[in-house]
Structure formats: structure tokens, C-alpha cells
Fold:
Amino acid sequence: MKREHFEALQAARAKKVPLVVVTEIKTGKQALVYYKDMKGDLAPSADLVAKARQALKEDLGGMVEGPDGMYFLHVYNPPPRVILVGAVHISQPLAQMAALTGYGVTIVDPRRAFASEDRFPGLEVTTDWPDEALERLAPDTRTAVIMLTHDPKIDDPALEVALKSPAFYVGALGSKKTHAKRVVRLKEMGFDDAAINRIRAPVGIEIEARSPAEIAVSIMAEVTAIRRGHITGAGP
Amino acid sequence: MSTDPSDDVLSTAGEWRKGGKGVAVATVVQTWGSSPRPIGSQLAVDGDGSFIGSVSGGCIEGAVIKEALEIIGTGKPKLMEFGVSDEQAWQVGLACGGKVRVYVERLD
Structure:
């Protein structure tokens, strides 16, 4: 890979700009294909560019046939995201595990004592009010949103935004009893069963988790299972 | 596929290169059957044979690193193939029985 291509690739990734690196296997020539732009020493055919952009959209790269043999499409989408509402004890191991699993992590908690940078070293922490924070963060199909405070004042406004978003995972911590009360409130807010049934609650897969780290394992297992299609029916 | 912590592989490769080392990057470009690492997984190798990342569960890394060291010298990229149908696989061994193609290129 030419140095200028590598530098452009790294710059795009740092700025979270999606792109595909198209490599002509026979020659090693490469093109950097963005949604709207393109550069490189390879001049790909219109068909190849279309395939590259389709791969970007589907977040799925691979080898394709082209005008001069095989081409590899390497998709570089920004990392999927996990938004944790509540900078509580469980959020500490959960944030670390989510980061290790490859997610960009944001922790939202308006309570400054909880949402300190010291408790979440190296991660993005915001003390904005949850509905404002969530609207700004705009969860997409590659985002998981997890409510962890047990406090309706904090969880509910976030949940409201999350349920209106196409987030692939919406989870809320709390017992069956807590969740039943939550369902009543959401119905009063006007959400129908289909929206409410998207919520994973009690959150996480059943592994008899007790400690905060164990609960985090259970939640990340569920997020993974849904992302990879092992558990279905959670989408918008 | 971008979710992979192989993010760090490219960053490390870039730092090695900046530090004046020769660097090659190997990428999984095609898989069949139960290959252990998905398409897009990467392994970076420096001129001393230090490496970061992976392209399999550890079965073929040795062979890929050996090839990568060659490519750091020649600059000529190469598509490598490993699988059960391949003679080499019995020696290098994709124990899972899958097949994988790895593209190795120099970082100029």
C-alpha cells in the first residue's frame, strides 16, 4: 500500500469517514472509494465503484470479479457504538468490555458525581440530559443503547429517543417488576407493543450473573447475539 | 468487519513505518468453511519479524510472517492460500478444516 493511500485511510478512520479500499489483486493497485469521492492509483470501473459502495452500505467486504481479475473490497466503516445511559457501577466493566469488543462507547449521565472521567478512563462521558444527549448522538442501525440507572427520570427520556431510533439493540436494566412499571409509563407516552417489545428486559442473557462484571458479560453476550443475528426480533 | 480491534493493527503498522521499519500487512480476503478469522482481519509484520494481529487462530501465522518478510524486501504483493485441499495446509495446518486466502502487501 502506497504511503499516501495509507495516510488517507488512517485520516478517514480517525475522522470516522466510511470508505472502501479496492485492491486489484493482480497488480496491487488501489483505489480509496468514499460515498461521494474517490482517489488512488487504480481507476476502478463504474461497476466496481458501485459494488464498493454497496459493500460499504452493507458493511460487508470481500472478493469480487472485475475487469482485470479479482478485486478485494476492504470496508472500513466507523466502529459500531454502544451508548450507556447511567454511569453506574455496572457501566464500568460494561464500558470496558464494549470497547474491547470493538464498539465506540459513550456514557451518558447528568449526575456529575457518577459521570466522572476518572471512573471511565479514555471513554467519552457526557453529563448532558439523556434525551438531549441521545438526540445529538443519533443512534443508527449500528448502535446499541442500554439504560442502566433504574431511575425513570434518567432512563425514560433516553428510552424515548432510543425507541424512535433504528438502534439494533435497546436494553434496560431492571427486574420484571421494574420493567412492568416501565411498560405502563411507555404506553402512557404513546408507544405501542411493537416498540415496547424491542426493549431487552430484563437486560442480558440468562447466566445467573451477580457481580457488575458478570452482568456486563451477560449484556455484551446479548448485544453480540443480536448484532450477529443469533437472536432475532429485537430490531426496529 | 470494521468492528475488529484490528484497528490497532494498522495504527501500530503506521507507527512502525514512521519509525523507519519495513512493514508488511496481511489481510484475510476470502474464507470458506470454518476459518477462524473473518474477512478484513489483519496482521502486521515488521522487518524483525515482530507482529501484531492475526489472520487465523495461530495456524498459518508462521507461514504468513515468513512471506511478509520477503515482501518487505521485494515490495511485490502476494495472494496466499491455505486450506485442507492444499499440500501446505498439512504442514502449516488450518486445523479447523477451513480454507482462507490472505493478501500480503508492503506498506511503502
Summary: Strands of chain B lie at 23-32, 42-46, 51-53, 78-83, 99-107. Chain B touches chain A at residues 1-5, 7, 10-11, 14, 17, 25, 27, 29-30, 39-40, 76-77, 79, 101, 103, 105-108 (CB under 8 Å). The mean pLDDT of chain B is 85.
